[in-house]
Amino acid sequence: MKKYSEAGVDVDLGNQVKSGIQKIVGVTRRPEVLSAIGGFGGLFSAKSGAFKKLKDPVLVSSIDGVGTKLKVAEMADRHDTIGEDLVNHCVNDIAVTGAEPLFFLDYIGTAKLEPSRFKEILTGIARGCKKAGAALIGGETAQMPGIYHGKDYDLVGTIVGVVDRKKILDGKTIKAGDILIGLPSSGLHTNGYSLARNILFDKLGLTLQSRIPGEKRTLGELLLAVHVNYLPLLRKVHAAVKVKGLAHITGGGLQDNLPRILPKSLDARINIESWPIPPLFQYLVNEGDIVGAEPYQVFNMGIGMVIVVSKADAKKVLKLTKGYEIGRIIKGKGQVQLHADPPAH
Question: pTM to 2 decimals?
Answer without folding.
Answer: 0.92
